[in-house]
Input
Amino acid sequence: MNLKRVRYHFYGMVQGVGFRPFVYRLAVKKGLTGFVQNRPEGVTAEVEGPPSVVDAFLDLVRQEMPPLAHITTVESTNLEIINDKTFKIISSNAQGHADVHITPDAATCPDCLSELFDPDNRRYRYPFINCTNCGPRLTIINALPYDRANTSMSCFDLCPQCLAEYENPSDRRFHAEPNACAVCGPRLTLLDGDGNAVESSDPVRTAVDLLLSGHIFAIKGLGGFHLAIDAGSDEAVQKLRLRKYREEKPLAIMVRDIDAVRQIARVTPDEEDLLASAQRPIVLLQKNENNLITGLIAPGVPNLGIMLPYTPLQHLLLEKHFSALVMTSANQVDEPICIGNREALSRLKGIADYFLVHNRDILVRCDDSIAFSASGKLRMMRRSRGFVPQPIPLNKIFPSVLALGGELKTTHCILKDNFAFMSPHIGDMETPQARDFFSESLTLMKRITQSDPQIIACDLHPAYYSSQAARELTSEKVIQVQHHHAHIVSCMAENQLEGDVLGLAMDGTGYGPDGTAWGGEFLIASETGFTRFGHLPYLVLPGGEKAVREPWRIGVSLLKTAYGPAWQEIARNLNLCTDQAQMDLLNKIIDGKIHSPLSCGLGRLFDGVAALIGLRRTVSFEGQAAMELEALATGTSAPPYPFILLQKDNEPYRVDTASTIRAVVADLQACRSKAHIAASFHSTLIEIFAAMGSEMRKATGLTRVALSGGCFQNKILLEGSIEKIGSDGFEVYSHSRVPSNDGGISLGQAVIAAAMIENAY
Ligand code: ZN
Ligand code: ZN
Ligand code: FE
Output
């Protein structure tokens, strides 16, 4: 008989995802012989049989592979016939798995879910059911390779039935490392607020009852604890906000299923896919008018952060009695999420009334990821659980570099070969706990990549914690990278661009090489350098940090710039500031440049305009005014206001928005609707971006535009810019898998440092 033998090398996410048993089952089904084996760099399979069957094999692998598997490359080689009689799984060779990607945690799969609710199944209502296609991964790993002994499942001995599944190549739980059942696996325990065990034969049932009566729960999840309450209860939400010192910041909710989501929010097919994906991020969705969720969950904003349940325990909790639970990361203000039972008991004391815990340790802190959909694409705002540690593929092989990120929304990034490995969201580096998490993350990233880069990239800001840490971490080389340059190169790296681009970096603030606060930047940038072609206007922030929390002060400074001495009367008319003594004081500190730093951050312009419109005088979290201005403009379109581009003496272009501010005031005085003014303000910004883009193209001939910075989380701004700049004949690149906010800058820092090192040789 005519036979053919082919060897395939599969690269990508092919270990720990059931890939080998899948290849085994497929080969056996098709009557092929040969073997499949894990290799340090991926999976190798040799198949032998009739040429037509062998030729069709690769397509079948691609079509039918397990849900968590992801092939980046396949190499195939024709071989001599060996006349194998069977198909075998050959056990891993001992060289280790250094280059094999660890998989992220995955939501409970449909098969496990139907077993969970099947009274005849031996895992009926077992809160830790999982299989090769789902369950914890990164968050239970202690060391490589990914074997049970190296996970927090190592202390649970498999019972005979679980062991039989684990060893059977045709079983869905073949080598499912966290495999467990009620006989041999982890268990739930219910504790009161002081950590005393609460007797219950059914902790889930008891927890549901207590949640229904308005209690606050700390519930152990995959990458950390959540604080959970009934999302339909005003009192519970108020109590949680009070105890968590979180007055207005939106809270995420977990909703039973897609049908229940539709009752609460508008959801497009793209968004449904995102919600139901194995990654299960929190997805920002537009609220329905008459939903049953309390208005206190996300006051003043049109969006709700919604996720579907992703652990068996969450499915059990949401089964009957709630359509939605508030599920917010369990932490104190600005601190990292809790993972240990004892840690939770001490750090959440006084916040949680009860604790629903278990004895499977979480080894890696991983917050819920947050995403939205814009211009038909996924947009990450926080990339953590479900996505980490899947690497971002780069366009070429880079020298090994570690980047430490910035000060807020910090992440770390290690470049290895042609991949960028980004850490879970670490957060704001303000508390000692966050700094501990910073060290934890470094250990994790080095373990994941099995590397210890001695070239370290960090921000230019001398006072950032990460900049100080960089110098302590290496004796070799620290490369400091400007914040907005890092933003733009992060966008380039994600889109696999090389060479010069026109970069629009729009955010709150970042340290400029001239020592001023940059933030509305038009850069001509490449991996190795940038020139500042232009920037948004520098605004005076009267009172410095105080002005960030009290945007009415920025409103005053905008008026003063636009009207000169006449500003006081307008401020009085707009009710922005009515106290003469206060106005005189502001005049004095602005003129005398006392406690009044300059910033050209777009975030601050948003704050100031929101204050002028009368949206709010003060904010309780960064970006609040901007979110509300966006909310106001959503669904309204209005023409842009005037602005002027100024340029002299080869200095960077300066966008002058005094005329914009005067037009805003004129519309306010003409009693135009706030929605109209907010929409016109958004249109103005898009118009400014397009006009600056044209100037940059005229000067350089470049046509590729990269959009980055936290302001591009504003959907109106992002979609409007992509459309307008694109229609002007530019190729527009934006972020998708990497956040456009400061969570993405570690990637840019790493690529810049690596490119500079390469250039130096
Ligand atoms: Zn499963
Ligand atoms: Zn068992
Ligand atoms: Fe930034």
